[in-house]
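Propose amino acids for all 605 sites.
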């Protein structure tokens, strides 16, 4: 095919993703578009250029601060907001780091980033591209708007399309309505819509695809379902990371790092109920790949890019299919390891299989340690489920990350007290992060705020610092502010925030390598070693039936099962034993179910 019959696309991911990870969004689009003979997609990661220009430490610090990165670009897109943006920039860095680095000069950094963006654009030879596609996730709106402006200034006839999770529904429409540099916004999954858009721009199709918003003045096609039906993700090719590796090599050839490769097992969430969650607004329905397809992808990616660390981008892994996947990986003799998000109700046996197949780090949706609060959040879990999964991760040596959502609207004093008590029980397990509630567009709380004591949904105070007021009044933003119940919640959650801090400090200052709450079994007795927040460790010895009951409750166990297993014991005796164990925080009880908390430490493995 002659070169001029090609339709060339630049697929771009702007800051602030983690720089040592390629963008799966644009890499997946590239491999999908590559199937079309006349489309020529190239992936670009200007975040790599910016990390190189400002230094990887500064990049990392800004990327972790969320709003700080947007603030830098706000001052470039809206120079009149520079003062507010500067304030937000320093506030955000202080929020994340007790002592933000001194080497942050807001104006100088913004200038460096602006220069870097311009240099990047010149270097890619932009004249050869007909379409510039930007993938937008969290924190990428202002960086993408800035680059889209630069593209349009240099090449007024070039077409710009936005897509991604930050462009769904009204979010996407308000971008198309308000920013002249954005010609199209894809609503929902990108693959099929982007191909159809190329066909339209090539004049090979008379119509725009349905799932797209058009710049103000143009006519958006009738919207139907935000996700084109029938996209079978089992038929998608593996993401193509070649461009990322090439760019990484060019920019960091002298300080090589081994990137972690994102992979996608599923789209959407099979639970899809949590009242605070808006992670699934982009997806219509839940779909996952088959285990053999996933295994093949991972093995090939590992071989092609010589990397062994993978990050599942799924909102939550498909439980049964993931079990097949990890079982197969356990069999194959390569030392891959994975990060994944999983639900708290993943059982011990299944997690053990995941671990043996390479799952080394998990993010678990813990969110709360009060069962009635978990119900308000529609998590489908209870406190004992959460505590059990924390223990299972410790047992199987899986590094667990998780959040406790604080200031959730409508939390009662009773739920706070329950949380405070239960925090004592989880002290031995890896601490959770304090994640302040945010009101996300499209979440159930956003749709029914009054059910959660929210009186009014308003513009988020941080967006007021980033965007001109006139513009904000016509925009739908990913995050909103709200009125009602805020001050009360901030006050109520203070002691919980303090306790999370103490919990973190406890783990930070520990020096021993053994688990803070473990037992060793002597056959007829067992010895539990328990570290407390302060004071010397305690030792507890359980003998005979006490030992047997403690071991019998390794997993969540109904008290009636204990009574059945130990018919020689009276209910009163069992109840007394459990009460003593719970008073010492060696067991946890929720209604009629109990769980032993100490993790077994074997001297031989
Ligand atoms: S928080 Fe996680 S489990 Fe809950 S609906 Fe969202 S993606 Fe699914």
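Proposal:
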């Amino acid at each position: 095919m002659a070169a001029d019959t090609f339709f060339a696309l630049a697929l771009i991911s702007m800051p602030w993703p983690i720089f040592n990870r390629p963008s799966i969004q644009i890499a997946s689009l590239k491999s999908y578009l590559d199937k079309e003979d006349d489309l020529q997609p190239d992936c670009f990661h200007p975040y790599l250029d910016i990390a190189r220009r400002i230094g990887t430490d500064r990049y990392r610090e800004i990327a972790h601060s969320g709003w700080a990165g947007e603030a830098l670009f706000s001052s470039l897109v809206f120079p009149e907001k520079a003062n507010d943006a500067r304030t937000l920039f320093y506030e955000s860095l202080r929020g994340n780091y007790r002592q933000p680095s001194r080497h942050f000069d807001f104006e100088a950094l913004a200038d460096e980033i602006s220069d870097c963006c311009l240099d990047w654009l010149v270097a890619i030879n932009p004249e050869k591209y007909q379409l510039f596609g930007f993938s937008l996730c969290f924190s990428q709106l202002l960086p993408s708007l800035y680059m889209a402006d630069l593209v349009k200034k240099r090449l007024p006839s070039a077409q710009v399309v936005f897509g991604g999770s930050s462009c769904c529904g009204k979010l996407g429409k308000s971008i198309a309505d308000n920013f002249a540099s954005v010609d199209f916004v894809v609503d929902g999954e990108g693959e099929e819509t982007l191909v159809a858009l190329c066909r339209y721009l090539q004049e090979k199709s008379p119509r725009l695809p349905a799932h797209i918003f058009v710049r103000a003045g143009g006519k958006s096609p009738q919207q139907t379902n935000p996700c084109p039906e029938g996209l079978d993700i089992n038929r998608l090719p593996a993401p193509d990371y070649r461009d990322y590796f090439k760019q990484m090599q060019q920019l960091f050839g002298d300080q090589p790092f081994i990137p972690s490769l994102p992979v996608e097992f599923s789209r959407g969430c099979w639970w899809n109920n949590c009242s605070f969650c808006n992670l699934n607004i982009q997806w219509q329905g839940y779909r996952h790949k088959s285990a053999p397809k996933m295994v093949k992808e991972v093995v090939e990616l590992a071989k092609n890019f010589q990397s062994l660390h993978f990050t599942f981008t799924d909102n939550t892994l498909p439980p049964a299919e993931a079990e097949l996947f990890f079982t197969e990986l356990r069999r194959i003799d390569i030392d891959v390891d994975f990060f994944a998000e999983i639900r708290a109700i993943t059982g011990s046996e299944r997690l053990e299989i995941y671990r043996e197949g390479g799952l080394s780090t998990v993010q678990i949706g813990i969110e709360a340690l009060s069962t009635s609060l978990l119900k308000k959040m529609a998590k489908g879990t209870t406190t004992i489920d959460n505590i059990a999964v924390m223990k299972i991760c410790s047992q199987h040596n899986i590094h667990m990350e998780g959040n406790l959502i604080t200031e959730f609207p409508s939390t009662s004093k009773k739920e706070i007290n329950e949380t405070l008590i239960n925090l004592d029980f989880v002290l031995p397990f890896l601490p959770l992060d304090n994640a302040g509630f945010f009101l996300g567009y499209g979440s159930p709380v956003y749709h029914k705020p009054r059910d959660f004591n929210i009186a009014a949904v308003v513009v988020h105070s941080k967006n007021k610092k980033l965007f001109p007021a006139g513009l904000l009044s016509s925009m739908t933003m990913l995050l909103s502010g709200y009125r009602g119940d805020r001050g009360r919640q901030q006050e109520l959650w203070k002691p919980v925030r303090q306790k999370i801090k103490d919990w973190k400090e406890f783990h930070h200052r520990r020096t021993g390598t053994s688990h803070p709450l473990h037992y060793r079994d002597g056959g007829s007795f067992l010895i539990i070693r328990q570290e407390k927040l302060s004071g010397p460790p305690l030792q507890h010895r359980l003998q005979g039936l006490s030992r047997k009951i403690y071991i019998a409750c390794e997993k969540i166990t109904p008290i009636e099962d204990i009574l059945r297993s130990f018919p020689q014991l009276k209910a009163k005796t069992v109840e007394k034993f459990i009460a003593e164990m719970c008073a010492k925080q060696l067991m946890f009880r929720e209604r009629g179910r109990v769980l032993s908390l100490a993790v077994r430490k074997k001297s031989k493995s």
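The mean pLDDT is 94. Residues 269, 271-274, 277, 279, 315-316, 343, 365 surround iron/sulfur cluster (CB under 6 Å).
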